[in-house]
Structure formats: structure tokens, C-alpha cells
Known about the structure:
Elements: E1 2-10, H1 16-24, E2 42-48, E3 51-57, H2 67-82, E4 85-91, H3 98-109, E5 114-119, H4 126-139, E6 145-147, H5 156-166, H6 184-199, E7 208-218, E8 223-232, H7 238-242, H8 247-261, E9 268-277, H9 278-281, H10 284-291
Parallel strand pairs: 1-3, 1-4, 4-5, 5-6, 8-9
Antiparallel strand pairs: 2-3, 7-8
Helix pairs in contact: 6-8
Guanosine-5'-triphosphate binds next to α1.
Amino acid sequence: MKCATVAIIGRPSAGKSTLLNTICEMKVSITASTPQTTRNAIRGIYTDNRGQLIFTDTPGFHLSEKTLNKRLQDTALRSLEESDVVLYLIDSKRSAGEEEMVLVSHIAKIKTPVVCVINKADIIRDTEEAAAKAFLEEFLPGRPVVKASAKLDEGVDEILIELFKLAPEGELLYPADAYTDQNLEFRISEIIREKAINLVTEEIPHAIYVEIADIEHDEKTNTIWVRAFIIVERETQKGIVVGKGGANIAKIRKGAEPEIRSIFPNKKLRLDLRVKAQDKWRNNSVVLDRILR
Length: 293
Ligand SMILES: Nc1nc2c(ncn2[C@@H]2O[C@H](COP(=O)(O)OP(=O)(O)OP(=O)(O)O)[C@@H](O)[C@H]2O)c(=O)[nH]1
Ligand SMILES: [Mg+2]
């Protein structure tokens, strides 16, 4: 039996979370077209007769002096050294800039073995593929390279083959049917956050957080009650999330409900969503600390 922890790393929007969801055949990590969607180290677990791979989906590696970004950056880099294998994703649609250079030179330095993925193969041009290959050949020579589409599930089996080749022998760390180690509250809050950021992405990309106030099971009616707050940074952003006559909040609820329901099979669901502004509610740093815990 093999068992390995695998850190997925790459620039924002490279498709890390999409790949993790495809591998786990389950929504374990939320995705969006806006960069820096993933904010925590999210775990997804894949098990078959070869053994178990425990993936950590990291926040996209992004160069910035801002405290928040620095902490996302640290989370990403730390997980590289702590894992058995690194899965390095390249967004073939964007040429390697300074960020990619910093990232690749860090990956080249560490001892952890690396599997490289040229992602978005479904929309790649020949010139882009050649550039990505040349880049990897120059900075990470000799490492296995797989061309894949995380979105269309192409090349993903090859990625798993390469990962299992590098995985050490070991017993399963999680039950064979586990696909994530995230707690219930966190999963529900992420589902709601995904619907919210995908809806208002133009206006307030990263000013949205979600907090679950409570989850209750009413046995008489076989209903799960979830009460959650969508938290925006400023009072003025509340209206954008709520929408005209509550239209946006209704869309968020409609989008989130089926996914939350799939977590509680055979139960009814009542989802109560409210929007709050953080500036009126509590101190900035407290909220950010909890989110980046
Ligand atoms: N065409 C195509 N689009 C993809 C593919 N993989 C991901 N995407 C899209 O790229 C965007 C970003 O995907 P994510 O999975 O959220 O990217 P990420 O690397 O997790 O991004 P951060 O969490 O922000 O670092 C989304 O719009 C995805 O649908 C792919 O293989 N092909
Ligand atoms: Mg992500």
C-alpha cells in the first residue's frame, strides 16, 4: 500500500481547486474565475487499490507585500516542505512572470519530489504548450510532466500514476471512503462563499466571508436548519450582495442549497442567509485571523 501527502501549488487561477475536485470526484474546494479564491489549506483525499493520496489545495502563490497575501504565500510554501510529493500546476494560458519564477526556484530548491502539470490542455495553443514545456525543462529538468485538463478530466489518470510512483509505502491515514477532512461548518460556509463570489465577482472579489451562526437538526420535521452570515467588508457593499429586491441573495441560496443538501442525504434543508457588514460588526483583524487560521 502507498500513502502520500501531496501539496498542490501554482499561481492563482491555475486550476488547483478544479483539479482537486476532479480527482476526488467531489466538490471539496471551491473555484472561481477570480484569482485567490482558495484561502485556506484545503484537504482532499483520494483512495484506490494502489493506496491513498492526501492532497492539500493551497492558496494561489501570489507575490505581494500585503499582510494577507504574505500569509497566503507562507501557507502555500510551508505545505511544500511538509508533504511527500509536490504537484506543481502551470496555467499554460499565461506566460511565466516574476511570480512563477519565484515559485519555480523555490520548488527547485526543496528536496520534495515534484510532478509538473501543464493545465488547461483543452484550450492550450501549440506555442503556449511549447513555452510551458521549455520553462519546465529549464527550471525543473527531469521531473515528470503531464499535460492535463482539470476541467474536462483529461490527463488526470496520468497525474495519479506519476504521484503513486513517487508515493512512499504506508498504511491509509483516512478511511477508504473519505474525500475530505474539512468540518461541516467550514464546508457549508465555503459552498455559500463560492456562490457569492461567483455572483458579484466584478464588484467585490475578495471582500466576502461567510460565517455559520448555527446548524440544527429538527427531528420532528427531518429538517436541517442552517443559519449563515455573508460578511462584506463595508456597509456600502451590502446592497451588492443582497441585490435588487433580494435577487442576488436568492440566487446564492438557490445555488448553495443543492450542494449543502448533498451533505445531508434524505434530509430537508432550510437555509437562512443574511448579509452583514464587517465594519459595523467586529474588528477586521479578528475576522481575518479566523479565516486564515
Ligand atoms: N478551460 C479550462 N479552465 C480551467 C481548467 N482548470 C481550471 N479552469 C478554470 O480556471 C479558473 C480558476 O480555477 P480554480 O480551480 O479556482 O483555480 P485555483 O488555482 O484554485 O485558483 P486560486 O484558488 O485562486 O489560487 C476557473 O474559472 C476554472 O473553471 C482547465 O483545465 N481548463
Ligand atoms: Mg483554489
